[in-house]
Write a structure and sequence with these properties.
single chain; alpha/beta; 16 strands; 396 residues
C-alpha cells in the first residue's frame, strides 16, 4: 500500500515505483472508480490482446448441441464494410496478438472467408480457425497453408463414425478426416508445419466412451492438442446429456499425451480437460487474456457467454441470457469501446468476480433475477452462473 497526498491544486502524485510498475507516463489517462471499499484507479490503454471474431452465424450442420435448436436470432454474414472497418481498428491495438475466427457460426460458410484470413495475417497476427471441418476441401486447405494460418481447430464430437454422425447431424466423419488428411498432404508438399491441428470435443453421455480413442485419432491426424469441453445445454435433451454436476463426479476417461511429428521435431500432444463440478473458484479466462468478441453485426461483447441471447439449463434450472454489447465497431472505434467507462468498470468487476453464486443460493429456484443474467448487485450483466468461469465450458 502507498500513501499519497493531494497538493494545493487538488492533484495526486503517484509514487515512482507505482508509475514504473504500471508503465504510467505523463499525460496518461486513468479512470477513477468509486467502490464500496474506496477509490480505484484504472489505467486506460488499448491493451486488447485477443479478438474472437464471428464472421457469420450461419452453419452447414444441425448439431444436437447447437443453440440454433432454440434460437430466434438472424442467421447472417458479417458485411464487407463492417469487416473492413474492423481491420482498420485492429491496427490501432498495439498489444493485439491473436484473432480467433469462430463463434456460433461456421466460418467457412462466409463467401469471403479466405479474404478475411488474409487481412488478419497481413496485420502480423496469430490466426486460429475453429471449424467443423466439413467444408475444409482442397481449395480451402490450400488457402490456409498459403496464407500461413497458425492453427485449425476441428470439432470432432466422436472418434467413431456412428457416434460422430449422431451428434453432428448433417456431417460425415469420413469426410472430415479426409479433409484433414488433405490439409496435411498440402502442408507436407509445401514443407510447412502450419496450420497446426487442434481437436475440440464436446463431451456428452452419448459420446463419452469415444474419448478413450481420441488420443489415438489425434496421433493419426498429427494433432498436437485436444480441448475437451462440456455442453452448454440449450434443450432438455442436452441437459440430460451433461456429464458435470454440482458435486464431485466421475473423471472423464481420457489418457494424456501422444507423439506428434512437427518437421524435424518430435513433440508431445496435450489434453485439456474441463472441470467436472461446480466449485468455489471462479475466474474469467476472457478477462485474464484481455479478450473480446466481435459479432457478425459489429457488436462488441466481453465474452462468448454474453455475445448472444439464448436459453440454457443450469443444474435443472432454466435461465435466459440476454446479449451484452459494449459498443459497435460500425459506430465507435474498437479502442474507444475498450476504454469506455462502463466496459472498464465491468472488466474490473469480473476480475474481482463480484457476483453471487446463484447455484449455491437457497433462493435460486424462486428468484426471478436468477432466471436471467441481470445483475442483482449492480447495473451490469451478472456472471453468477457462468460455466466458462468455472472451467466447465471451454473455448480455444
Amino acid at each position: 500500500m502507498h500513501r499519497v497526498t493531494l497538493d494545493a491544486q487538488g492533484k495526486v502524485k503517484l509514487p515512482a515505483q507505482i508509475r514504473r510498475r504500471y508503465g504510467l507516463e505523463k499525460g496518461d489517462e486513468l479512470l477513477l472508480e468509486d467502490t464500496e471499499t474506496g477509490l480505484t484507479f484504472h489505467p486506460l490503454r488499448a491493451d486488447v490482446r485477443k479478438v474472437y471474431l464471428e464472421v457469420t452465424t450461419r452453419c452447414n450442420l444441425h448439431c444436437r448441441t447447437c443453440v440454433r435448436n432454440v434460437w430466434d436470432e438472424p442467421l447472417e454474414d458479417m458485411p464487407p464494410a463492417t469487416f473492413e472497418r474492423l481491420v482498420t481498428q485492429l491496427e490501432g491495438l498495439p498489444q493485439l496478438r491473436e484473432v480467433v475466427f469462430g463463434g456460433y457460426g461456421e466460418p467457412f460458410v462466409h463467401p469471403h472467408f479466405p479474404d478475411c484470413l488474409a487481412a488478419a495475417k497481413r496485420l502480423g497476427l496469430k490466426v486460429i480457425v475453429s471449424t467443423n471441418g466439413v467444408l475444409l476441401d482442397e481449395e480451402q486447405a490450400d488457402a490456409l497453408v498459403r496464407l500461413g494460418v497458425d492453427v485449425v481447430s476441428v470439432s470432432l464430437d466422436g472418434a467413431d463414425p456412428d457416434t460422430y454422425d449422431d451428434v453432428r447431424q448433417g456431417a460425415d466423419l469420413r469426410v472430415v478426416l479426409d479433409n484433414v488428411e488433405t490439409l496435411n498432404r498440402i502442408k507436407a508438399k509445401r514443407g510447412t508445419t502450419v496450420p497446426r491441428l487442434w481437436i475440440e470435443f464436446v463431451a456428452l453421455r452419448r459420446n463419452v466412451a469415444d474419448l478413450a480413442n481420441l488420443p489415438n485419432l489425434a496421433r493419426q491426424l498429427g494433432a498436437n492438442r485436444i480441448l475437451v469441453t462440456h455442453v452448454l445445454p440449450h434443450t432438455p435433451e442436452m441437459a440430460a446429456e451433461a456429464l458435470y454436476a454440482r458435486d464431485q463426479t466421475t473423471p472423464l476417461p481420457l489418457s494424456t499425451g501422444w507423439p506428434v511429428h512437427s518437421g524435424d521435431w518430435l513433440l508431445w500432444g496435450t489434453v485439456e480437460l474441463p472441470r467436472m463440478n461446480w466449485g468455489a473458484e471462479r475466474r474469467c479466462r476472457f478477462m485474464s487474456s484481455k479478450a473480446l468478441v466481435v459479432g457478425w453485426d459489429g457488436g462488441v461483447s466481453p465474452c462468448y457467454a454474453l455475445s448472444h441471447s439464448y436459453p440454457y439449463t443450469i443444474f435443472g434450472r432454466h435461465k435466459d441470457v440476454s446479449r451484452c454489447t459494449m459498443g459497435n465497431v460500425n459506430e465507435t472505434p474498437l479502442a474507444e469501446i475498450w476504454n469506455a467507462d462502463d466496459y472498464v468498470r465491468f472488466r474490473a468487476e469480473v476480475r474481482r468476480f463480484d457476483f453471487p453464486s446463484c447455484v449455491d443460493c437457497d433462493l435460486r429456484d424462486t428468484c426471478d433475477i436468477a432466471a436471467t443474467n441481470d445483475g442483482c448487485w449492480g447495473g451490469y450483466p451478472s456472471c453468477a452462473d457462468c460455466l466458462w468461469a468455472q472451467g466447465i465450458v471451454r473455448c480455444p
